[in-house]
Amino acid sequence: MLNNKHRLFLAPMSGITDTSFRLLMRGLGVDIVISELLSAESIVNSHKRTLSMLNIDKKESPIGIQLFGSDPNVIRNAAIICKDYGAEFIDINMGCPKRKINKKKSGAALLKDPQYLKDFLTIINENLTLPLSIKIRTGWDTKNADEIIQIAHETGVSFVSIHGRTQSQGYDGKSDWDYINKIASISNIPIIGNGDILYANEATNILKNTSCHGIMIGRGALLNPLIFLEINQLLNNKKIDINLIDIIKKYYEIVLQKIDIKVQGIKLAKIYFWFSLRYENAETFKKDIFTLKDSPQKIIEYTLNHFNSNLPLTQQTSPNFLMGGHG
Known about the structure:
Layout: E1 8-10, H1 19-26, E2 32-34, E3 38-39, H2 40-44, H3 48-52, E4 63-68, H4 72-85, E5 89-94, H5 99-102, H6 114-125, E6 132-137, H7 145-154, E7 159-163, H8 177-186, E8 191-194, H9 200-209, E9 214-217, H10 219-223, H11 227-236, H12 244-258, H13 264-276, H14 282-289, H15 296-307
Parallel strand pairs: 1-2, 1-9, 2-4, 3-4, 4-5, 5-6, 6-7, 7-8, 8-9
Helix pairs in contact: 1-12, 4-6, 6-7, 9-11, 12-13, 12-15, 13-14, 13-15
Protein backbone atom coordinates (compact mmCIF):
# COMPACT_ATOMS: atom_id res chain seq x y z
CA MET A 1 0.00 0.00 0.00
CA LEU A 2 2.75 2.45 0.95
CA ASN A 3 5.28 3.92 -1.45
CA ASN A 4 8.32 6.11 -0.94
CA LYS A 5 6.15 9.23 -0.96
CA HIS A 6 4.17 8.01 2.06
CA ARG A 7 6.52 8.84 4.93
CA LEU A 8 4.78 11.48 7.03
CA PHE A 9 1.70 10.39 8.99
CA LEU A 10 -0.69 12.34 11.20
CA ALA A 11 -1.30 10.29 14.35
CA PRO A 12 -4.88 9.49 15.31
CA MET A 13 -5.80 11.63 18.32
CA SER A 14 -9.09 11.37 20.16
CA GLY A 15 -11.19 14.51 19.87
CA ILE A 16 -8.73 16.12 17.45
CA THR A 17 -8.23 14.32 14.15
CA ASP A 18 -11.71 14.86 12.75
CA THR A 19 -12.26 15.86 9.13
CA SER A 20 -11.49 19.54 9.81
CA PHE A 21 -8.07 18.94 11.36
CA ARG A 22 -7.20 16.24 8.84
CA LEU A 23 -8.01 18.59 5.96
CA LEU A 24 -5.87 21.29 7.54
CA MET A 25 -2.90 18.95 7.88
CA ARG A 26 -3.28 17.54 4.35
CA GLY A 27 -2.69 21.07 3.14
CA LEU A 28 0.34 21.42 5.39
CA GLY A 29 2.60 18.67 4.13
CA VAL A 30 1.41 15.44 5.75
CA ASP A 31 1.24 12.40 3.45
CA ILE A 32 -1.36 10.21 5.19
CA VAL A 33 -4.05 10.99 7.76
CA ILE A 34 -5.94 8.67 10.09
CA SER A 35 -9.18 9.32 11.94
CA GLU A 36 -9.51 9.45 15.69
CA LEU A 37 -10.26 6.03 17.14
CA LEU A 38 -13.84 4.90 16.55
CA SER A 39 -15.81 2.08 18.12
CA ALA A 40 -16.40 -0.73 15.65
CA GLU A 41 -19.45 -1.79 17.63
CA SER A 42 -20.96 1.71 17.44
CA ILE A 43 -20.45 1.78 13.68
CA VAL A 44 -22.11 -1.61 13.17
CA ASN A 45 -24.99 -0.52 15.43
CA SER A 46 -25.43 2.70 13.39
CA HIS A 47 -24.70 5.00 16.33
CA LYS A 48 -25.56 8.42 14.92
CA ARG A 49 -22.68 10.37 16.47
CA THR A 50 -20.09 7.75 15.51
CA LEU A 51 -21.33 7.58 11.93
CA SER A 52 -21.08 11.38 11.73
CA MET A 53 -17.39 11.00 12.60
CA LEU A 54 -16.95 8.95 9.42
CA ASN A 55 -17.43 12.03 7.27
CA ILE A 56 -14.53 12.11 4.81
CA ASP A 57 -13.61 14.74 2.24
CA LYS A 58 -11.93 13.55 -0.96
CA LYS A 59 -9.15 16.06 -0.33
CA GLU A 60 -8.11 14.02 2.72
CA SER A 61 -6.96 11.10 0.56
CA PRO A 62 -5.12 8.91 1.39
CA ILE A 63 -7.02 8.37 4.62
CA GLY A 64 -7.48 5.50 7.04
CA ILE A 65 -10.14 4.94 9.68
CA GLN A 66 -8.91 3.71 13.05
CA LEU A 67 -11.16 1.18 14.78
CA PHE A 68 -11.10 -0.38 18.21
CA GLY A 69 -13.01 -3.35 19.58
CA SER A 70 -12.70 -6.84 20.99
CA ASP A 71 -14.77 -8.83 18.47
CA PRO A 72 -12.90 -9.38 15.18
CA ASN A 73 -16.10 -10.13 13.28
CA VAL A 74 -17.61 -6.84 14.39
CA ILE A 75 -14.43 -4.99 13.39
CA ARG A 76 -14.48 -6.62 9.95
CA ASN A 77 -18.12 -5.63 9.46
CA ALA A 78 -17.35 -2.10 10.61
CA ALA A 79 -14.46 -1.96 8.13
CA ILE A 80 -16.83 -2.80 5.28
CA ILE A 81 -19.06 0.10 6.33
CA CYS A 82 -16.04 2.41 6.57
CA LYS A 83 -15.13 1.60 2.98
CA ASP A 84 -18.55 2.85 1.87
CA TYR A 85 -17.78 6.14 3.62
CA GLY A 86 -14.49 6.54 1.74
CA ALA A 87 -11.87 4.87 3.93
CA GLU A 88 -8.83 3.73 1.94
CA PHE A 89 -7.39 1.54 4.67
CA ILE A 90 -8.35 0.35 8.13
CA ASP A 91 -6.11 0.83 11.15
CA ILE A 92 -6.69 -1.29 14.26
CA ASN A 93 -5.93 0.41 17.55
CA MET A 94 -3.72 -1.90 19.58
CA GLY A 95 -1.90 0.83 21.47
CA CYS A 96 -4.40 2.76 23.58
CA PRO A 97 -3.32 2.37 27.24
CA LYS A 98 -6.57 3.62 28.79
CA ARG A 99 -8.08 1.28 31.35
CA LYS A 100 -11.64 1.61 30.06
CA ILE A 101 -10.46 0.41 26.63
CA ASN A 102 -8.09 -2.29 27.90
CA LYS A 103 -10.59 -3.88 30.29
CA LYS A 104 -12.77 -4.65 27.26
CA LYS A 105 -9.84 -6.60 25.77
CA SER A 106 -9.15 -3.98 23.13
CA GLY A 107 -6.48 -1.35 22.55
CA ALA A 108 -3.10 -2.31 24.00
CA ALA A 109 -4.65 -5.32 25.81
CA LEU A 110 -4.44 -7.17 22.48
CA LEU A 111 -0.65 -7.27 22.88
CA LYS A 112 -0.91 -9.58 25.89
CA ASP A 113 -1.74 -12.75 23.97
CA PRO A 114 0.09 -13.08 20.63
CA GLN A 115 -1.59 -16.36 19.70
CA TYR A 116 -5.04 -14.86 20.22
CA LEU A 117 -3.93 -11.81 18.27
CA LYS A 118 -2.99 -13.98 15.30
CA ASP A 119 -6.50 -15.45 15.19
CA PHE A 120 -7.97 -11.98 15.76
CA LEU A 121 -6.17 -10.41 12.79
CA THR A 122 -6.79 -13.42 10.56
CA ILE A 123 -10.55 -13.08 11.04
CA ILE A 124 -10.51 -9.32 10.41
CA ASN A 125 -8.43 -9.60 7.26
CA GLU A 126 -10.42 -12.50 5.80
CA ASN A 127 -11.92 -11.27 2.51
CA LEU A 128 -11.30 -7.66 3.55
CA THR A 129 -10.90 -5.57 0.40
CA LEU A 130 -9.13 -2.69 2.15
CA PRO A 131 -5.50 -2.69 3.31
CA LEU A 132 -5.16 -3.33 7.04
CA SER A 133 -2.66 -1.65 9.38
CA ILE A 134 -2.19 -1.81 13.12
CA LYS A 135 -0.97 0.75 15.66
CA ILE A 136 0.81 -0.84 18.59
CA ARG A 137 3.08 -0.14 21.53
CA THR A 138 6.37 -1.86 22.19
CA GLY A 139 4.46 -4.34 24.35
CA TRP A 140 2.13 -4.63 27.34
CA ASP A 141 4.53 -4.63 30.29
CA THR A 142 7.53 -6.13 28.50
CA LYS A 143 8.62 -5.50 24.94
CA ASN A 144 7.34 -8.06 22.43
CA ALA A 145 6.89 -5.99 19.28
CA ASP A 146 9.18 -8.36 17.38
CA GLU A 147 6.64 -11.15 17.90
CA ILE A 148 3.73 -8.86 17.06
CA ILE A 149 5.17 -7.68 13.75
CA GLN A 150 5.83 -11.27 12.70
CA ILE A 151 2.17 -12.05 13.37
CA ALA A 152 1.21 -8.93 11.44
CA HIS A 153 3.27 -10.12 8.48
CA GLU A 154 1.75 -13.62 8.59
CA THR A 155 -1.81 -12.28 8.71
CA GLY A 156 -1.43 -9.86 5.80
CA VAL A 157 -1.14 -6.56 7.64
CA SER A 158 0.18 -3.86 5.28
CA PHE A 159 2.17 -1.79 7.79
CA VAL A 160 2.63 -1.31 11.53
CA SER A 161 2.89 1.94 13.49
CA ILE A 162 4.82 1.56 16.74
CA HIS A 163 4.65 3.94 19.70
CA GLY A 164 7.88 3.60 21.64
CA ARG A 165 6.47 2.83 25.10
CA THR A 166 4.82 -0.20 26.68
CA GLN A 167 1.24 -0.05 27.92
CA SER A 168 2.42 -0.13 31.52
CA GLN A 169 4.54 2.98 30.92
CA GLY A 170 1.53 4.98 29.80
CA TYR A 171 3.21 8.19 28.71
CA ASP A 172 5.98 8.13 31.32
CA GLY A 173 9.60 8.28 30.28
CA LYS A 174 10.64 8.67 26.68
CA SER A 175 9.76 6.86 23.49
CA ASP A 176 12.35 4.13 22.86
CA TRP A 177 13.55 4.94 19.36
CA ASP A 178 16.46 2.51 19.56
CA TYR A 179 13.96 -0.31 20.02
CA ILE A 180 11.70 0.99 17.25
CA ASN A 181 14.71 1.08 14.91
CA LYS A 182 15.67 -2.45 15.94
CA ILE A 183 12.17 -3.68 15.09
CA ALA A 184 12.13 -1.77 11.80
CA SER A 185 15.47 -3.30 10.80
CA ILE A 186 14.14 -6.87 11.10
CA SER A 187 10.58 -6.31 9.88
CA ASN A 188 9.26 -7.73 6.61
CA ILE A 189 6.62 -4.99 6.44
CA PRO A 190 6.97 -1.19 6.70
CA ILE A 191 7.32 0.23 10.21
CA ILE A 192 6.09 3.73 11.05
CA GLY A 193 7.75 5.13 14.18
CA ASN A 194 5.80 7.21 16.69
CA GLY A 195 6.45 8.99 19.96
CA ASP A 196 7.81 12.32 21.20
CA ILE A 197 8.57 13.87 17.79
CA LEU A 198 8.10 17.56 18.51
CA TYR A 199 10.58 19.17 16.13
CA ALA A 200 11.33 18.88 12.42
CA ASN A 201 15.02 18.17 12.93
CA GLU A 202 14.14 15.20 15.17
CA ALA A 203 11.89 13.85 12.42
CA THR A 204 14.46 14.18 9.66
CA ASN A 205 17.10 12.53 11.83
CA ILE A 206 14.82 9.50 12.27
CA LEU A 207 13.98 9.33 8.58
CA LYS A 208 17.63 9.54 7.56
CA ASN A 209 19.22 7.37 10.23
CA THR A 210 16.79 4.58 11.10
CA SER A 211 15.13 1.72 9.24
CA CYS A 212 11.66 3.22 9.71
CA HIS A 213 9.68 3.63 6.50
CA GLY A 214 8.04 6.71 7.95
CA ILE A 215 7.13 8.66 11.07
CA MET A 216 3.84 9.46 12.77
CA ILE A 217 3.39 12.78 14.56
CA GLY A 218 0.56 13.77 16.88
CA ARG A 219 1.32 16.31 19.61
CA GLY A 220 4.07 17.87 17.53
CA ALA A 221 1.50 18.96 14.96
CA LEU A 222 -0.63 20.58 17.67
CA LEU A 223 2.29 22.51 19.10
CA ASN A 224 3.50 23.45 15.64
CA PRO A 225 1.09 22.94 12.72
CA LEU A 226 3.96 23.82 10.36
CA ILE A 227 6.00 20.78 11.41
CA PHE A 228 5.30 18.66 8.32
CA LEU A 229 6.17 21.55 6.01
CA GLU A 230 9.35 22.13 8.01
CA ILE A 231 10.28 18.46 7.61
CA ASN A 232 9.74 18.71 3.85
CA GLN A 233 11.85 21.85 3.81
CA LEU A 234 14.74 20.06 5.51
CA LEU A 235 14.43 16.92 3.38
CA ASN A 236 13.60 18.40 0.00
CA ASN A 237 14.49 22.08 0.31
CA LYS A 238 10.85 23.03 -0.20
CA LYS A 239 10.14 26.65 0.63
CA ILE A 240 7.47 27.37 3.25
CA ASP A 241 5.15 30.11 2.01
CA ILE A 242 2.61 30.05 4.83
CA ASN A 243 2.70 31.20 8.45
CA LEU A 244 0.70 30.56 11.63
CA ILE A 245 -1.69 33.46 10.95
CA ASP A 246 -2.51 31.94 7.56
CA ILE A 247 -3.11 28.56 9.22
CA ILE A 248 -5.42 30.06 11.84
CA LYS A 249 -7.50 31.69 9.09
CA LYS A 250 -7.55 28.52 7.00
CA TYR A 251 -8.69 26.37 9.90
CA TYR A 252 -11.49 28.83 10.63
CA GLU A 253 -12.70 28.51 7.03
CA ILE A 254 -12.58 24.70 7.17
CA VAL A 255 -14.47 24.50 10.47
CA LEU A 256 -17.24 26.77 9.20
CA GLN A 257 -17.61 24.55 6.13
CA LYS A 258 -17.27 21.11 7.72
CA ILE A 259 -18.33 21.23 11.37
CA ASP A 260 -21.83 21.38 12.86
CA ILE A 261 -22.63 24.96 13.80
CA LYS A 262 -23.41 23.89 17.37
CA VAL A 263 -19.80 22.86 18.04
CA GLN A 264 -17.82 25.15 15.74
CA GLY A 265 -16.82 27.48 18.55
CA ILE A 266 -15.53 24.83 20.94
CA LYS A 267 -13.66 23.11 18.11
CA LEU A 268 -11.89 26.34 17.17
CA ALA A 269 -11.13 27.20 20.79
CA LYS A 270 -9.56 23.79 21.47
CA ILE A 271 -7.29 23.77 18.43
CA TYR A 272 -6.25 27.41 18.76
CA PHE A 273 -5.42 26.84 22.41
CA TRP A 274 -3.11 23.96 21.47
CA PHE A 275 -1.47 26.20 18.86
CA SER A 276 -0.85 28.75 21.63
CA LEU A 277 1.11 26.43 23.90
CA ARG A 278 4.47 27.24 22.31
CA TYR A 279 4.04 30.91 23.12
CA GLU A 280 3.98 33.15 26.16
CA ASN A 281 0.61 33.91 27.79
CA ALA A 282 -0.95 30.58 26.81
CA GLU A 283 -2.85 30.32 30.11
CA THR A 284 -4.38 33.77 29.63
CA PHE A 285 -5.30 32.83 26.09
CA LYS A 286 -6.96 29.63 27.31
CA LYS A 287 -9.01 31.45 29.94
CA ASP A 288 -10.21 34.05 27.44
CA ILE A 289 -10.78 31.87 24.38
CA PHE A 290 -13.11 29.41 26.08
CA THR A 291 -15.36 32.23 27.29
CA LEU A 292 -15.98 32.96 23.58
CA LYS A 293 -16.86 29.37 22.60
CA ASP A 294 -20.39 30.32 21.55
CA SER A 295 -19.15 32.77 18.91
CA PRO A 296 -16.78 31.55 16.17
CA GLN A 297 -16.49 35.12 14.88
CA LYS A 298 -15.30 36.44 18.24
CA ILE A 299 -12.90 33.51 18.57
CA ILE A 300 -11.18 34.20 15.25
CA GLU A 301 -10.96 37.93 15.98
CA TYR A 302 -9.47 37.34 19.43
CA THR A 303 -7.08 34.67 18.18
CA LEU A 304 -5.75 36.77 15.31
CA ASN A 305 -5.22 39.71 17.63
CA HIS A 306 -3.41 37.45 20.11
CA PHE A 307 -1.03 35.93 17.58
CA ASN A 308 -0.46 39.21 15.73
CA SER A 309 1.17 40.66 18.84
CA ASN A 310 4.57 39.06 18.11
CA LEU A 311 4.46 36.70 21.07
CA PRO A 312 7.80 35.20 22.11
CA LEU A 313 8.20 31.43 22.21
CA THR A 314 8.11 29.94 25.69
CA GLN A 315 10.55 27.43 27.11
CA GLN A 316 7.99 26.16 29.62
CA THR A 317 5.72 23.99 27.50
CA SER A 318 5.66 20.51 28.96
CA PRO A 319 6.15 17.67 26.47
CA ASN A 320 3.54 15.78 28.51
CA PHE A 321 0.61 17.89 27.37
CA LEU A 322 -2.18 15.89 25.75
CA MET A 323 -0.78 12.63 27.09
CA GLY A 324 -3.46 10.03 26.71
CA GLY A 325 -5.02 11.71 23.69
CA HIS A 326 -3.55 9.36 21.13
CA GLY A 327 -5.52 6.64 19.46
